[in-house]
Each structure stands twice: as C-alpha cells, then as structure tokens.
Amino acid sequence: MVKTGDAIRESFIKFFESKGHTRVASSALIPKDDPTLLFTNAGMVQFKNAFLGLENRGYTRAVSCQKCARAGGKHNDLENVGITARHHTFFEMLGNFSFGDYFKEEAIAWAWEYLIDVVKLPKEKLWVTIYENDDEAFKIWHEKMEVPEDRIIRMGEKSNFWMMGETGPCGPCSEILYDQGEGTGCGRPECDIYCDCDRHLEIWNNVFTQFDRDETGKLTPLPNPNIDTGMGLERLTAVIQGVKSNYDTDLFAPIIRFVEKTSGKTYGKNAESDISIRVIADHSRAVTFLVGDGIMPSNEGRGYVLRRILRRAARHGKMLGINKPFLNEAAMVVIDMMKYTYPDLADKASYITKVILNEEQRFMETLDAGLRILQEETAALKKTGKSALPGVLIFKLYDTFGFPTDLTADIVKKDNLSLDMEGFEAEMERQRERARGAWKGSGEEAVAECYLKVSSSGIASEFCGYEGVTKDEATVTAILVDGKPAEVACVGQKAEIVLDTTPFYGESGGQAGDTGYLEGAGINFTVEDTKKPIDKFIVHKGVVHAGEIKIGAKVRLVVDQERRKSIAANHSGTHILQAALKAVLGDHVKQSGSLVNAQHLRFDFTHFSKITDEELQRVETIANDMIRKNLTVQTEICALEDALKTGATAVFDEKYGATVRIVKMGEMSMELCGGTHVTQTGDIGLLKIVHESAIAAGVRRLDAVTGKEALLHVQKMEEELKRTAGLFKASPLEVYDRAEKLLKQAHEMEKDIESLKGKLAAKDSGDLMNQMKEIGGVKVLATEVSITDAKTLRDFGDKLRDKMESGIILLGSKADDKVLLLCMVTKDLAGKYHAGNIIKELAPFVGGKGGGRPDMAQAGGTQPENLSKVFPALEKLLTKQ
Ligand code: ATP
Ligand code: MG
Which of these, 5, 201, 179, lies nearest to 91 by C-alpha position? Predict the structure, then answer.
C-alpha cells in the first residue's frame, strides 16, 4: 500500500482523534515562553506546562504534527544530514500526548495498533527497546502485544531515558525500530540492533514522562504521569513507501527534482554529489520554515544557526556547479508542497524568498572575498617554503566565509599545499565550545511561575474593553503581593489584582497596558500598568491608596480614557502604516516588532535597503489618504484557519488560539490583532513619520506619531522654521532660498578676507623688517604679531623670510587663551640652526609643546600671558650657541 506523506500525516492524526485525542496545530519553531530552548525540537515542547501541571488546556489527550528543528542546542543533527538517510535539520514529528490521562498500557497498545493495523507494517520487521529496569513496559510489549522476548531490547539511560533539556519533564522511554533488511545501512555482516547505522531504523519513541528534573538532576515524580510520543513523519513515510531513505519519499521528491534540474546532475549516480543533493534538499526545507517562523540570518543565536544552514546549502550548490542564487527558488518548491499543511507559508512566500535571496547574495560576496584571502595566504606560504595550510586559516575560511574544507583543499591542490586538519579540528572544537557557551537563551522572559500557578487553578479574566468600553464592575479573583498569591492587599501596598472581567487592556502584541483606577467600598487602587503574562490572564499593577482589597471584593474599574484613545489611534496607525508600506515597498514587508503607547508608535519590519525620502513621503501620503477616507474599523472573530485563508496578515510568533480576531480597515488592511482600535480611521487625525532607521540586517524601523502628538510635532517643526525665518528676515517659504544665498555670500566673503589678509601681511612685513636685530652674528626678527590663524601666520612668515634672505624669524601671537609660535630659519643657516629644536625649547614657556622641520616649525600654547618671555629666551638660546 503506497501512501503519500500527506496522507500518512493525516491518517496518524485521524487515528488518535478516534481515540479521543484533540487535534492541536503545530507551534512555531521558536518555542513560545521557553527562552532556554534554541528551537522547538519535539512535539511535547508546546505542552511543557501542561505536563508540569501548570497549564490547563481544556483537554487531556492531544495529537499533533509538530515542526521540529534539530540543528543546534541540545539536539543537533546538522552534521549527520546528507550522510545518514534518516536525519534532518527540519522534520515533522507526529505525536500523541496524555496529560495525566492514559499511561503506558494504552500508549503501547495504540502505537502497535496504528503501525500494524492502520499502516500495515509487517510485525516481523519491528523491534522494540525499553529502559533497562522498566519491567512494566516489558510486560505490556511481551504479554499483551505478543512481541517475542528476543525482540525487546533493554537499553541504558543514554538512549532510553528521555530528557527535553537539562531540566524539565523526563522519563523512561520505549522505541520502535524497523529493520530495513540485510545490506542496508552500514552493510556489515555483524550489524545488529545496537548499531547506529540506518538499518534498524528508529521510527517511534514513546516516552513515559513520569518525572520533572531540576537543576541539580533531582527527579520529582509528576503529579500525574504523562505520555509523550514522537515519530518522524519522514521515517514513517519511508518505511511505508518501502524505500531505504527519507530522501526517496514523496516528501522530498519535488525538491530533489528541482536540484537536479538546476545543477544538471542526476541523483543516485555519484555518491559525492548525492550527499550535496540531500544536504540541499534538507536545508531548503529548514531555511524555508525557519525564515517563515521569523528567524533572520545573523551572527548569533538562532539567526546564526539559520545562516550556517543556508550557507552550507549554498556551498553544496557550488560543489554541484550551481553558480547563482538558487535556494530562494528551492524555498518556493518547498512552499508549494507544504502550503496546504502550513497555510501561513503561502502568505509569507514573497518574504521568505526575499530573505533567502538576500542572504545568498551576501554569501556570494564573501565567497569571493574568501577566495581572495586564500590566494594571498597561499602566495605568502609558498614564499616561506611551508607546505601545509594552517588550521586557523582553514577554520576562518570555513566559519567566516563558509568554505568547506574539501573546497579549500581543492583550491590549494594546484599549489601542492596540504591542509593542517588537526589544527582545523582543534579550532572546530573551540568553536563548538564557544557555541555551547554563547547560547544563553533568547532573552525573552519566561512566564513567572506564580502566574502559571494562579491561572492553572482556573482563574482567568475576560477582557471587555473593546468597542470603547472603559468602565465596568467586577470581582477580585486573585491578588499577588511581591510575586506571591495573597488573600489581601492593604493600604500603601503594591499589588497585582486579577478580576473576573476587566476593560483594562493588558500589555501584549506591542500595545501598552492601560492605566486608571479601581474603587469600591472604601477601596481606592491606582492602576499604574496592566499586563497579560499569559493568555486570558490580566493583572492590574498598582498601589492601594485606601481600604483593603480582598478576594471576592466588588470594584468599579475606570480606565484613563484620554490615554486609551491615544493608544488606540497609534495602534490603528501601525496597521495603516503596514498597509501603506506594503503598497509602496512590496509584499515582502512583514512586521517584525511593534510598540504602541500613548505618545508614539514604532513599527519594525523587513526590508533590505534604506527607505528613501521620496518613498517615505509616499507611505505617509497613502496612510493619510486612508485616514481621511474615514474608513470604519471592522472587527470579526473567526477560526484561525479561516482567517489565514482570507489572507489576513499574521505576525510570526503564533500567539494565536483556535479563534482569532480580525481587524479590517477598508480593502488595504486586514490583520489578526487583539488590540484596541479607533472606530473610524478619521479618529487618527494625522499620521506623521518622524524617523527612519535600521535596527538589524534586513530590518528597518519607523517611528511615527498620530492625532494630537502629530499636530504637536508639526507645530514644533513650524515653530523652528518660523524662528529661523525670523533670523533671516524672510517668510518661512523663502527660508531655503535666503539661506542658500547667504551661505554663498558668506563663502565669497571668506575668500575676500583671505586675500585681504595676505595683502595686509605683505604690507606689515615691510614695517616689521625695522625690528630686525643681530644676535651672535645672525639676523633675528622676533616679535609679536596679531595673526591668529596658523596658516595665515605661516604665509606671513614665508613673506618675511623672502625679504630677509638670511636669518631667523620667531613670531608669536595670542588669541583668547591660546598662543601660536612660528619659527623659520633661512636655507643658508641650515645645519647651524634648527627651527624645530628652537620651538621645542621655547614652547614650554607658553605651556605648549612643539617641533618641526629644520627650516620651519610651529607650536601652540595655552598661556598667552607668558608670550613676552619667549623673545628674551630666544636671545639667550642664540647667544649660548
Ligand atoms: P536518532 O537516534 O535516530 O537520532 P532520536 O533518538 O534522536 O533518533 P527522538 O529524540 O526520540 O529521536 O525523536 C523521536 C522521533 O523523531 C524519532 O523516533 C524519529 O522518528 C524522529 N527524529 C528524531 N530526530 C530526527 C531527525 N534529525 N530527523 C528526522 N527525524 C528525526
Ligand atoms: Mg537523535
């Protein structure tokens, strides 16, 4: 029975739905609320809090097909990719989960039923492993499933005790392996179940999550044991389709065909190019999904892993003879295959391919730079007579320029150079250590446990502040003081109050939280900020000014209305801005962050060059056209799937639940958004962009203001312009012309002054000649002058020297708190007197330092009051000589 990968994915989900499981969509590759994890690496990641008993999901059995990446962090299969037939950097993990519901018995029975009865794998090819002392699992496999004893292998902690990370849920596990038959995998006659090759292929891992592991390694039994299973869709598809490699399944065929077409090579003809083709096929999927989930190539953290995967694929392309960017096209093939399962891919297609193309182009530039470095270094090496390329260089080419060592070896072969691979390996090891050390988490905040605890007890708050509602009555359901649940908050205390319903918007999606106050029988509480640490859980942070707030108290809630209005205008403004940016710059514009508060809005988005003034003006014009059209802001609640189908813009980090809110303004703007908005776009009044900047490679930022703030901004600018116009005695509209004219005049005047100064100096020099003295048989002219510009002083000195023919000149001048000294010696005295040395001796008299050539030297000083001491000092110096 040949089934497509798509059909197998669906059959798994359907099977477990029939066993009472709720179908749950894949979460993003960037783990939500888990800053310690590099990528989502298993189906259970999104259920971590449910396993820990910190989250109530409303169901106790779940089935999912989860996007996973294992290319960095604890799970890293990057180096296996292309070599083994079963490892990918990106893959899909099928899984069924029990949160304190069923346990080992059902899990094992259903796994067996699915494999034997549904997809009809031959029993005789299956093996199972269990944790060495898990007799319970042995019994179920042997007695209930009738798996022969010699097909149940007991394994140690390393392979059969599953841990998600250093801490968190864990437990013994049981794997199901499929024997692909003699001659597959390593092909050795002695190959057995313990061999790590592809022959005994692990397809499914059933984890019996019984413990929570803390930092010290201590295992605490979980309140209710859980089931967590994971089966690679690609591996399952391979065995069902009867092929020996994941790459031979229909999940990869179109990508491999694309690589064949682009490179002109045929898959299966040459072992070396086959590796490259597999690497490209795998990495194309990984980069498509990683970029699609909002990761940008960069030099750290997740972005660095993405960059390395992408460059690795690009250089394998080069090895296949592809000399142009092609991964962006491969991504399109992936998107076309996968968009039915992951509808957001279609929406993000233009963005994804642009990001990839941009990185490919960057890499092509470094590729050439790397080649240049290699050429220079080999030339230098040859001169020294050495015959091995140092490991540090090989590593630099590999790491910074993405050169594979074999490519490097190939290039230097013609120069009869070998590679110091030992040195290279040492550098690689150092890099691995650095990478391990460098990942200190993504920097996002983990949700504080106190909120999870309170919310898992069933407490939630309903937000009733849409449609402009800013007042309501509600009941206090929880109180937190100093981050701990409390029964009461007293006068003067800072507290966080949770209410059953609230019109206060809790900070989320970039929108600032509301402020205002709560009041009730004798109670007064100012709300300084409102937060939403978890979905549906809103906390009012502030101070008790009067009375005591107790759980169960009834209070009236009043939001600061004016502030809310400004925030709404700014939030609606960001939607309009995004629509206008797309219209002007293109569909690749994707929000990568935003901030909306009462004063201004900030919008970060993907774009690869500076936005010109002309483009900014067009964006602003389109935005304000939308505002003046006074479009009604429509909101609608619908299923996430339907929303995505209508083409509504979604933000990367899937914070969305099963139902979402769509905010629509006219035909141009439709976004998934939970924020508060104006009712008509006209309420925004005016949108003014005030700043454009770059915040990362490929990410730009716009700062803008709306409404009253926009008016204030325009007024301030006008005021400045008027003040300037006043200075120029012109009207504001004439300022530019007037300023330009005046600047031109000033420039001409400067030129005139220069030439007049020269003329004056010429005249003065005649007068000064009278002051010449003879000291020790040399003519000396030492005097104070009023020229304060160094260059003019030099020119003046030149003139004196011309007139003097033979002698020494020392000129000093002072201005404010500075002194200038100039000394010149005529040519005929060269060798006898040295202007530089003279200045060196004299400068300290005026608090300065100086020196210079034998014929001319200058110095600056800071003690004008001492200038008069310099001249007698010169006389002394010369008579000494
Ligand atoms: P292996 O030993 O083959 O690397 P694993 O022990 O790391 O597998 P688990 O962590 O138990 O695998 O993950 C559960 C299932 O996910 C595996 O049984 C397998 O089907 C699949 N899987 C794991 N890693 C990969 C990968 N890199 N590429 C594709 N599928 C994978
Ligand atoms: Mg593994």
Answer: 5
CA distance 68 to 87: 12
The DSSP element (H or E) to which 214 belongs, if any, is none
Cα–Cα distances (Å) from 809 to 117, 772, 780, 803, 839, in that order, read 109, 9, 6, 11, 11
**In angstroms, rounded to a whole number, what is the distance separating the alpha carbons of residues 497 and 665?**
34
Find where tokens 């005249």 sit.
Answer: 763
Q: Which two tokens stand for residue 820?
A: 């200038």
Residues 6+ apart with CB under 8 A from 92: 9, 26, 65, 66, 67, 68, 232, 233, 234
- Decide if pLDDT at 575 tops 60: yes
Long-range contacts of 80-85 (CB under 8 A, 24+ apart): 81/278, 81/279, 81/282, 81/283, 82/275, 82/276, 82/278, 82/279, 82/282, 82/316, 83/275, 84/197, 84/198, 85/198, 85/238, 85/244, 85/245, 85/246, 85/247
- Ligand in closest contact with the CA of 41: 1
**Buried residues in 515-545 as b, exposed as e (16+ CB within 10 A):** bbbbbbeebbbebebbbbbbeebbbbbbebe
pLDDT at 627 over 60: yes
Short-list 567, 470, 561, 473, CA closest to 519: 473
First and final CA of the chain: distance in angstroms? 111
Is the distance from the beta carbon of residue 205 to the nearest atom of ligand 1 less than 6 Å?
Answer: yes
pLDDT greater at residue 843 or residue 438 = 843
Whole-angstrom distance, CA of residue 344 vs CA of residue 367:
33
Find the range with the poorest average confidence among 221-225, 651-655, 834-838. Answer: 651-655
Q: What is the pLDDT of residue 843?
A: 93
Residues shown for the chain: 881
Does the beta carbon of 305 lie inside 6 Å of ligand 1? Answer: no
Q: Is 55 in the pocket of ligand 1 (CB under 6 A)?
A: no
* DSSP type of residue 652: S
Average pLDDT over residues 445-473: 82
Which residues are 717's β-sheet partners?
none
Q: Report which secondary-structure segment, H or E, holds 812.
A: strand 808-815
Contacts of 32 (CB under 8 A, 6+ apart): 46, 653, 654, 655
pLDDT at 367 over 90: no
CA of 17 to the centre of ligand 2 (A): 28
**Model pTM?**
0.72
Counting from 1 in the atom list of ligand 1, the atom nearest the Cα of 89 is 27
| Dihedral of alpha carbons 532, 534, 538, 539, sign | negative
* Rounded Cα gap, residues 132 and 465, in angstroms: 57
